[in-house]
Amino acid sequence: MRGDHLNLVIGVAAAIFATFSWSLNFLSPYVTGHYSAYDFIGVRFVFAGALGLLFVAMHWTQVCRLRVGEMALAFCLGMVGYVGYLACIMGGVIYAGPVITPAFLGLVPILTAVIGNATNKTLPWTKLIALVALAACGLCLTNLEHFARGERSAGTPLLIGVCFSLSAVAAWLIFSVFNQRAFERNPQLHPIAWTGLMMTGAGVGTLLLIPLGLQWSVFNFPTLGFGWSNAGHLYMWALSLAVVSSFGGAWAWNIASKRLPMVLTGQLISVETLFAATFGLLVQQRLPAANEIVGLLMILAGAIGAVRLVFAPSV
């Protein structure tokens, strides 16, 4: 029982670190300068792919122990969970504006927790629904200001934006479900080797999407140039997030997926909102509004409640 309890502690700590590292992505709009978010994302995932190849080479022995199907799954999860997810978010923002897509993404922790409990019942449904409702209300309160001032460019096809937004939710759910099942089927999966394969897939996916981005004219590199004098800061930030967020976040999440039930990892995803809001407040140099305080506390309470319920049998 003590070993199970330690596994839960390590898993929760890893999940919280993963959400923290992923929340650093919300700083990217403040560091791009004259370059676009698409320039930043493209460079970042090319770096991530190169780092992924390095990790694969460093842990080649562990990689060789994987079946071909497992290697292909990790590769595809990188394309779906990294590139596909972000590409869908971009499409949602382009066609539906900056409000609709974040609103749909608020469904991710809720649906992940529900799917996890439906697949492998861990918590009583009555208690889970109460915790999910608490987190959902918290997410709504936290984003209240965005909904209130939301606006959308006239004439843009809203339906396309909604489809992109739903596709982003689907991409993350696919990533979460299949990544969790991979560790359930093979507990011996090496987290760094698995993460390296995913990052390699993300790098390849990015290279495949660059021609589409050029066609849509979303990149500023062709006009601003690739030189270090202009883009050096972008390269440094992209490399930093590739290491801390793309690798560190995915590696920590794989450790959590290996040790925690999906219903708990799903609930812990909502903690990313807490970290992201904190970074946003620091950048804006302001105190949180009343609705933001209440919303963040509700999110935190929902996550803590889920952790306590999962820990209870082992304590």
TrEMBL record:
Bilayer-spanning residue ranges: 7-28, 40-60, 72-93, 99-116, 128-146, 158-179, 191-214, 234-256, 268-287, 293-311
Q: Name one GO cellular component term.
A: membrane
Keywords noted in UniProt: Membrane, Transmembrane, Transmembrane helix
Q: Which InterPro entries match?
A: EamA_dom, EmrE-like
Pfam families, A to Z: EamA (PF00892)
Ranges for domain EamA:
160-306
Q: Which domain of life is it from?
A: Bacteria
The protein, known as: EamA domain-containing protein
Task: Give the source species.
Answer: Verminephrobacter eiseniae (strain EF01-2)
Classification of source organism: Bacteria, Pseudomonadati, Pseudomonadota, Betaproteobacteria, Burkholderiales
